[in-house]
Amino acid sequence: MSDSVGIVTPQKWVFEEPITLSSGAVLPRYELMVETYGELNADKSNAILICHALSGHHHVAGYHTAEDKAPGWWDSMIGPGKPIDTNRFFVIGVNNLGGCHGSTGPSSINPATGEPYGSAFPVVLVRDWVETQARLADRLGIQQFAAVIGGSLGGMQALRWSITYPERIRHALVIASAPKLTTQNIAFNDVARQAILTDPEFHGGDFYQHGVVPRRGLRLARMLGHITYLSDGGMGEKFGRLLRTGEYQYGFDVEFEIESYLRYQGDKFANVFDANTYLLMTKALDYFDPARHYGGSLAEAMRQAKAKFLVVSFTTDWRFAPARSREIVKALLDADRTVSYAEIESQHGHDAFLMQDAPYMNVMRAYLNNVAKELV
């Protein structure tokens, strides 16, 4: 298709320099799996970093082979003529440290033992991901990003970029995100982790050596998470109370279409995602709170930033509700930063940031058109 970046090939970047993580743990070396789209201009000013959410990865757009049934997870947003236009921008997707799609993570070999890291892999925070992304930018010769963009957990990374490296980012696009998790969100994450931790096949995180996968725990964690990503209205419109056979079966097997859908999503996820990575990603969500080191003041934290901001929320997103985005906007205004805000009407819940709702796409296109004009 003319608006696709086409066939893309990921690259593994090896970093031999040790990194000291926020927890104090040290990784002597690490690898990041990266994909890029478009061309870096002569002065390297047109780079955009895409930060992924909990279950995301580096494959953001295009196809790995001609036989792929589905493109990258944000293909609707990235490509020639799309809102993140690869005719104008050089776009970078990175699988975060601790991930399970090629970057160093719990399933990688620990050089100290010759076995998978497993339970020995350290907890990573959003600030650790930003540090590794900055090191990648250094290797690419990119001194300043035109924009850092992310939804959900990716939006938290964009916020952290603006605070930690204010000189290295001109725009931060924070979509369907929050300045920190609510108590309810932390509770959801803990229930999901408990599903994994209590799976008999988990083996304390060292299930690799046993040749098993804590599939049941991963499946339950994903089913729970998936419910929170959708809106009540959206689920009702798609599934209602539809029965698979049209009649009650008076048992505990799948009867309602929503049950079938959730079990399918859980099974699919358990086949491709690493249980330890799921634990790490949810913990990074729990710990994110940039105001913590500024006396609890988000406005004070955002005073460090020099970027301009676009903050986007969705009306039916109850996991990262619009009120949370408005907290970010207020803090930015209190800090005298430049911010645009859009609250999009959508039936898709938290997943709306991945969808092609026209008002959302139009907002993104308009904002990024202005970012592109700065390159001229």
From TrEMBL:
<feature type="active site">
    <location>
        <position position="350"/>
    </location>
</feature>
<keyword id="KW-0963">Cytoplasm</keyword>
<dbReference type="GO" id="GO:0004414">
    <property type="term" value="F:homoserine O-acetyltransferase activity"/>
</dbReference>
<comment type="pathway">
    <text>Amino-acid biosynthesis; L-methionine biosynthesis via de novo pathway; O-succinyl-L-homoserine from L-homoserine: step 1/1.</text>
</comment>
<keyword id="KW-0012">Acyltransferase</keyword>
<feature type="binding site">
    <location>
        <position position="351"/>
    </location>
    <ligand>
        <name>substrate</name>
    </ligand>
</feature>
<dbReference type="Pfam" id="PF00561">
    <property type="entry name" value="Abhydrolase_1"/>
</dbReference>
<dbReference type="InterPro" id="IPR029058">
    <property type="entry name" value="AB_hydrolase_fold"/>
</dbReference>
<feature type="binding site">
    <location>
        <position position="222"/>
    </location>
    <ligand>
        <name>substrate</name>
    </ligand>
</feature>
<dbReference type="GO" id="GO:0005737">
    <property type="term" value="C:cytoplasm"/>
</dbReference>
<feature type="active site">
    <location>
        <position position="317"/>
    </location>
</feature>
<feature type="domain" description="AB hydrolase-1">
    <location>
        <begin position="46"/>
        <end position="353"/>
    </location>
</feature>
<keyword id="KW-0486">Methionine biosynthesis</keyword>
<comment type="function">
    <text>Transfers a succinyl group from succinyl-CoA to L-homoserine, forming succinyl-L-homoserine.</text>
</comment>
<dbReference type="InterPro" id="IPR008220">
    <property type="entry name" value="HAT_MetX-like"/>
</dbReference>
<comment type="similarity">
    <text>Belongs to the AB hydrolase superfamily. MetX family.</text>
</comment>
<dbReference type="GO" id="GO:0009092">
    <property type="term" value="P:homoserine metabolic process"/>
</dbReference>
<dbReference type="InterPro" id="IPR000073">
    <property type="entry name" value="AB_hydrolase_1"/>
</dbReference>
<keyword id="KW-0808">Transferase</keyword>
<feature type="active site" description="Nucleophile">
    <location>
        <position position="152"/>
    </location>
</feature>
<protein>
    <recommendedName>
        <fullName>Homoserine O-succinyltransferase</fullName>
        <ecNumber>2.3.1.46</ecNumber>
    </recommendedName>
</protein>
<dbReference type="GO" id="GO:0009086">
    <property type="term" value="P:methionine biosynthetic process"/>
</dbReference>
<feature type="site" description="Important for acyl-CoA specificity">
    <location>
        <position position="319"/>
    </location>
</feature>
<keyword id="KW-0028">Amino-acid biosynthesis</keyword>
<dbReference type="GO" id="GO:0008899">
    <property type="term" value="F:homoserine O-succinyltransferase activity"/>
</dbReference>
<comment type="subunit">
    <text>Homodimer.</text>
</comment>
